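Lab manual, section 2.4: Encoding a predicted structure.

Procedure: take the sequence of the chain (145 residues), apply the prediction step described in section 2.3, and record the output as structure tokens. A sample record is shown.
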Amino acid sequence: MFKTVRKQSAMEAVIDAIQKYILQNRLQKGDRLPPETLGGSRNILREALRHFRMLGVIISKPKTGAEINCLFPENPFYGYQPFIAAWDKDLNDLVKARRVLELGAVDNVLSHSCSDDIDKLNAQIWQLPLVRLSALKMILSFINY
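Recorded output:
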């Protein structure tokens, strides 16, 4: 009946503003982020930029500010890996969560695919270089674990 409205923190608002600015202005690798257009206090802006640095989306250079490094981080968990590895319980929970998400994603793709889509996917899998094919086999064995 009623939709729950979640109040957004100032930092979350600045993170959203930075993300919208990047997308609306179609920024690419090497483009600078002008901090004056992003709003928020200096401390909140600094924390929001740290969020994007942690993801690898931006890099900060002395005297020039922040610039786009990549729009889609290769490994968004890179900065967290030492912490995850330090706690076996968290790592086991993460593995279980990953399995649930991946199985759900596979099920979702299959339920929205026709036999032609699956045939095309199979054909593409066999055209992958050997290194990628062995990585794919490893992922599939992880899912079937």
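Check your result against the sample. The first strand starts at residue 58 and ends at 61.
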